[in-house]
Design a protein that fits this description.
This protein is of the alpha+beta class. It contains three helices and twelve strands, in the order H-E-H-H-E-E-E-E-E-E-E-E-E-E-E.
Length: 297
């Protein structure tokens, strides 16, 4: 078993090295945007109650540690990237870089505490460093080499009151986007908070994938493991949608799109069959799309 594990580890390192060479300046491949992360122990420095370190190996306090446990702050865990944290907290990754005055988003440490909500009004804003085009690098478990990883950017604000399941969005609010179905195929898998963060819709290769509401492209690429060719749209300060496993992407990052616009062609990238995996995220958290999509005839 140890030999087999070593071979798998060596194979992973080889694949990661090859990916770095082939990708060049493109968005690096990384973990899927949603993944359970449990506290770890054994990291360098004094551990906190969560098992994460509070100091580095030399005993120096980690950046932001004075904010550990405070609302609106997040302690970095192994495998995290700035972009991945942005997705999980419903923010834009460049905002997190700016709020925390990060000189290099590649360099965050396990246990470091980051602000993940906007500073209060009137608070001095950090000077944003020049980070355009800089890829995110995952924070590896203690004692391992860094591996490239990326997650798409999103933006968010303070969430409105939670809408009861099955109720209609209130007119004139961030909830009221006039959602439409992104594809016309049969529903083959529904939302399951533990197993499936969205809906899976069947189809044929090349079938149109449509924007479920007006928005702007905040991610378009194949850098997220398990999602294949992926598009993420930001619709407002509350909602974003994700469209995975596409055959072809027809839009680019920062492009404005309209509801019903064809943004991709259905495919089977990083999937076992042709399908569209569709997610709606509310403040960065996956929610059941059937609560928002119109009833099908």
């Amino acid at each position: 078993m140890q030999g087999s594990g070593r071979r798998r580890s060596l194979a992973w390192v080889g694949v990661a090295a090859a990916a770095i060479v082939l990708m060049g300046c493109t968005t690096p491949r990384g973990p899927a945007p949603v993944e359970d992360r449990t506290p770890v122990s054994g990291s360098a420095g004094t551990p906190s109650a969560s098992g994460l370190p509070t100091t580095d190996a030399s005993g120096k306090p980690l950046p932001g540690i004075e904010n550990l446990g405070k609302p609106g702050y997040y302690a970095v865990r192994p495998g995290d990237t700035v972009r991945r944290i942005a997705v999980d907290t419903g923010q834009h990754w460049r905002d997190i870089v700016r709020w925390n005055n990060l000189d290099n988003p590649d360099r965050i440490e396990v246990g470091q505490v980051l602000r993940v909500v906007p500073p209060v009004a009137g608070a001095p804003a950090a000077v944003p460093p020049a980070v355009a085009g800089v890829p995110a690098t995952a924070v590896p478990p203690s004692g391992t080499a860094s591996a490239p990883a990326a997650t798409p950017p999103v933006a968010s604000a303070t969430p409105p009151a939670t809408k009861p399941a099955g109720s209609s969005p209130a007119a004139g609010t961030d909830e009221d986007l006039g959602w439409i179905w992104p594809a016309q195929g049969a529903l083959i898998a529904g939302f399951d908070d533990a197993k499936n963060k969205g809906l899976d819709i069947a189809g044929r290769a090349g079938d149109p994938v449509l924007a479920a509401a007006d928005g702007r492209v905040v991610y378009a690429g194949a850098g997220l493991r398990g999602y294949g060719n992926l598009i993420i749209l930001k619709h407002n300060n509350t909602f974003l949608t994700a469209y995975a496993h596409n055959q072809t992407l027809l839009v680019k990052e920062d492009q404005a799109v309209q509801k019903g616009q064809k943004i991709a062609e259905m495919g089977s990238s990083d999937a076992d069959r042709v399908k569209l995996h569709f997610e709606i995220r509310r403040q960065g958290k996956p929610v059941d799309p059937s609560r928002y999509l119109p009833a099908r005839p």
